[in-house]
Specification:
The chain is 36% helix and 22% strand. It is of the alpha+beta class. The chain binds heme C and copper (II) ion (CU). One of its GO terms (biological process) is ATP synthesis coupled electron transport.
């Protein structure tokens, strides 16, 4: 038989929801397009020049008609609004237990790193049935991460983190595309997502060797860039300790005012690259900027390390 699929595989938990909404909207559009075309055709034929029909006394008011063309579109658009809002929230709110994978786009490839430390280029391996959250940024221009089989797509921007999540529901290999024109070899910025059985996936991770985790690599960088010299209880510089800071509100000196900012990925990234922008209340702005000295993948590792410190918030002195 012919193999001419109109839709890519439905390989994530949300794929069928996206398709159902799409088909509903397509159906509404087709119905009204056909209805309008049919009406035009009938009227053109019926009232064509030279045809003898009653053209006298056109009705000037028809309340039932006006009510119909207001109420039906109103109901239809409200259904579309509520339905797509529901799909939107499902697509953009990652469950809290999602495993976080880092993604860096650059001309012209994708670099990905798993929390366990294993990294990949233009390939992503994930276990079936587990929610995955991608934390994405770009090293140069705007890219866009697109996996049609999962029905997900998100711009990847330099200087900012965007996220995307999915739960693969079907074992297989799927296309990964960059879908934002990003220069000469944009068309080659493609890859694959391989969805595996959990046991197989664990084997795949283990096959990467028992290397350091992403957070452990971050700790090594933290020492290498002399962050530790100031941030682990220096005698010379008064710098805040970073244990437990991740995810918490931090007091920022803003002129004479103090405002609170949540220590999320964005905040930590900016603290490293633009330390003068948000200075922690009670501290001197002595931290040097690391702009241009730490690559995007390394920044993600350092953030993973600082985040891991939040987990073991025991106040242990290192
Ligand atoms: C010369 C000492 C020094 C070095 C080196 C240094 N920092 Fe800092 N850092 C500070 C000081 C002082 C502050 C508080 C004032 C401010 O916000 O700028 C700070 C603030 C921060 C904050 C915000 C902390 C909070 O409680 O909100 C983060 C995150 C941070 N540094 C990470 C790093 C990382 C990562 C490195 C290494 C790449 C590093 N720092 C290197 C002195 C330093
Ligand atoms: Cu690209």
């Amino acid at each position: 038989m012919w193999n001419f699929p109109l839709f890519p595989d439905q390989a994530s938990t949300n794929a069928a929801r996206v398709d159902a909404l799409f088909l509903f909207e397509l159906g509404v559009i087709l119905f009204f397009t056909l209805a309008v075309c049919l009406a035009i055709f009938v009227l053109v034929v019926r009232f064509r020049r030279g045809r003898i029909v009653d053209r006298s006394g056109p009705p000037l008011e028809a309340r039932w008609l006006e009510v119909t063309w207001i109420v039906i579109p109103l109901i239809l658009s409200m259904i579309m609004f509520a339905w797509s809002a529901d799909v939107y929230f499902r697509l953009y709110q990652a469950p809290p237990d999602a495993a976080e994978i880092s993604v860096v786009g650059k001309q012209w490839m994708w670099y990905l790193q798993h929390p366990e430390g294993r990294s990949e280029i233009n390939q992503l391996h994930v276990p079936v049935g587990r929610p995955i959250k991608l934390k994405m940024t770009s090293q140069d221009v705007i890219h866009s991460f697109y996996v049609p089989a999962f029905r997900i797509k998100q711009d990847v921007l330099p200087g900012r983190y965007t996220t995307l999540w999915f739960e693969p529901s079907k074992v297989g290999t799927y296309h990964l595309f960059c879908t934002e024109y990003c220069g000469t070899s944009h068309s080659e910025m493609i890859g694959t997502v391989t969805v595996m059985e959990p046991a197989e996936y664990d084997g795949w991770l283990a096959a990467g060797g028992a290397g350091p985790s992403q957070a452990d690599e971050g700790e090594r960088l933290f020492v290498q860039h002399h962050c530790a010299g100031c941030h682990r209880g220096s005698q010379v510089v008064n710098a805040p300790r970073l244990e437990g800071v991740y995810g918490k509100p931090v007091p920022i000196q803003d002129g004479k005012e103090v405002r609170f900012v949540t220590a999320d990925d964005r905040y930590i990234r900016d603290s490293i690259l633009m330390p003068r922008q948000e200075v922690v209340a009670g501290y001197q702005p002595v931290m040097p900027s690391f702009q241009g000295q730490i690559s995007e993948p390394d920044l993600l590792k350092i953030i993973a390390y600082i985040k891991s410190l939040a987990a073991k918030e025991t106040g242990t002195v290192r």
